[in-house]
Amino acid sequence: GAVVSQHPSRVICKSGTSVKIECRSLDFQATTMFWYRQFPKQSLMLMATSNEGSKATYEQGVEKDKFLINHASLTLSTLTVTSAHPEDSSFYICSASGQFDGYTFGSGTRLTVV
Amino acid sequence: AQSVTQLDSQVPVFEEAPVELRCNYSSSVSVYLFWYVQYPNQGLQLLLKYLSGSTLVKGINGFEAEFNKSQTSFHLRKPSVHISDTAEYFCAVRPTGAGNMLTFGGGTRLMVKP
Question: Are B35 and B59 in contact (CB under 8 A)?
Fold first, then answer.
């Protein structure tokens, strides 16, 4: 079945630094990738949608300059949290769509900003 | 636009008892329906999906769901739960057609007690 690899699974960074999260589709071409943020005991909040080779579409309220998304190839999308602050601490999950009927999720990244 | 309501935020149940997790949706267009399971600090795993055909859908781990168009519901059921079923469950919908994003419900935490 379709597999999406997300790295790192956990990261701790200092306030003010940037962190990059990678999402790779291992056995299919992901034409569209989605990035979600999940707060404790809450549902997934869509942050942005990225299509290969074009700029990401951000949801309302998501700062595009803070959360940089790159989808340069059909198998890789990255989310960079720039100048991270403690309030950016969260669980980030990517999802890839390359198939007609569903989406495959990465295993998530727990970001802690200290 | 679509919306998904999971009526129960938490469902406690004893091991080997049956369980039903409720999901209702609202949409002005035809949708596909999904149930996902999330274990702690992990991404989402697809349990089952309804695209078309039989309204009773069987998924992994002994779960099944029934699509009821008139009641706009897609409740998830399992006849006998195990401790290992303790997790967060998300109902989601998306419009039919490729590339459209998923809309998630708020999630239901299933807590299986010995």
Answer: yes
B40 CB within 8 Å of a chain A CB: no
Q: Using CA atoms, how far apart are residues B5 and B11, in angstroms rounded to an integer?
A: 15
Average pLDDT of adjacent 10-residue blocks, chain A of 114 residues: 90 97 90 90 90 88 94 91 96 82 86 96
- Reduce the secondary structure of B20-68 to three states and give it as a string: EECCEEEECCCEEEEEEEECCCCCEEEEEEECCCCCEEECHHHCEEEEE
Mean pLDDT on B70-98: 93
- The radius of gyration of chain A's CA atoms, rounded to the nearest angstrom, is 13
How many angstroms separate the CA atoms of A77 and A57, rounded? 13
- Asked whether the beta carbons of residue B43 and residue A107 sit closer than 8 angstroms, the reply is yes
The end-to-end CA distance of chain B, in Å, is: 41
A 46-65: CB under 8 A from B: 46, 49
CB contact under 8 A, A100 and B98: yes
